[in-house]
Amino acid sequence: MPRPLGELEDAVMTRVWKWNRPVTVREVLEDLQQERSIAYTTVMTVLDNLHQKGWVRREAEGRAYRYEAVSTRAAYAAALMNDAWSQSDNPAAALVAFFGMMSDEQRQALQDAMRIVQGPASAPQPGETETASGAEAGGAESTPPPEAEGDETASTAEAESPESLPPSERPAGSAGDKPGGTPGENPAGMRDEKNPASDGGATGR
Fold first, then answer.
1. Per-residue model confidence (pLDDT) at position 121
2. Which of 64, 56, 62, 61 is nearest to 19 (CA)?
3. In angstroms, rounded to a whole number, what is the distance separating the alpha carbons of residues 179 and 68?
4. Cβ neighbours, 10 Å, residue 98
5. Which residues contact 86 (CB under 8 A, 6 or more apart)?
6. What is the distance between the terminal CA atoms of the chain, rounded to a whole angstrom?
7. What are the φ and ψ backbone dihedral angles of 162, each rounded to 5 degrees?
8. What is the value of pTM for the model shown?
9. How far apart, in whole angstroms, are the C-alpha atoms of residue 84 and residue 173?
């Protein structure tokens, strides 16, 4: 578990985190000297200690080093909170006490963090279910059943068939109609006229 930074270590790391780039001892020294009187060797020693503790990594540049943060300040703060919470003999009570000390802004930040961790809800947006149900209902009402459509077509075809019309309204040449007689009949007289031999009067033998 990480140990809390000392006052000077925190001041140096604050600048390393803020600049978010590799820094030299000289750069940190000049910025710190705007607030306090401090020697070059002191800043060099602090950065070396931070390197030994694993807070920064360094890369040689000529005869000096450039130092860069290993983790963010947010990760450092989270590690400290987790360390303090794990040392409590009653973690739930520790959390209740911690929440009681939080400001409104901190509580809002906690709620925002929980939403980020849990991710967006997978439930459908309001109105989507209702719209889908309406579309299904509308489709069912607007589309006639196949059986009804087939029956209607058959009825229309049957009504337009020549056989279904009265004899006076049928078109000429309809099936079953013979000139001069009742539909479907073949008078015997017509047979006699076409085939005189059919009366049996002339045998020729």
1. 61
2. 56
3. 114
4. 14
5. 1
6. 138
7. -60, -35
8. 0.50
9. 107
